[in-house]
Write a structure and sequence with these properties.
Pfam families: ATP-synt_I. About 80% of the residues lie in helices and about 0% in strands. It has one domain. The protein has about 120 residues and is mainly alpha-helical.
Length: about 120
């Protein structure tokens, strides 16, 4: 599934670009807790996206080989989201809770925007 790897690489570039803006916002504005929450949530969101991509590749390989199929790591990704919420609640002076939650959702927004961009481009 090389197209899945291409898709993930494109999403990773977009997220790293966003993270660089968040770091600049954290460094140069007075909204440091908001940007730190966005950085935390988006970082875990990128990790979750990497995890589901990697497990999807393993899932496909196992199906082709006729082996037993394991889960796609739902509990791992939910634990990551819970981790972000716990950190943001425990340290509200550093992390803004709502921006951390928005950061967790960032990958889904990036996926949707990337989908629409790919649909507008002429196919190769």
């Amino acid at each position: 599934m090389p197209e899945l790897q291409e898709l993930f690489n494109r999403h990773r570039k977009y997220i790293l670009f966003l993270l660089s803006f968040y770091v600049l916002g954290w460094g140069f504005t007075s909204y440091q807790s908001i940007f730190l929450g966005l950085i935390l949530g988006t970082s875990v969101s990128l990790f979750s996206h990497w995890l589901i991509m990697r497990r999807t590749l393993r899932f496909g390989d196992a199906v082709v080989a006729g082996q037993k199929v394991r889960s796609l790591g739902t509990y791992s990704r939910m634990a990551g989201a819970a981790f972000v919420a716990i950190i943001a609640i425990e340290y509200p002076e550093y992390f803004h809770l709502y921006s951390a939650i928005i950061g967790l959702m960032t990958i889904y927004i990036v996926i949707m925007i990337d989908y629409f961009i790919q649909q507008l481009q002429p196919h190769k």
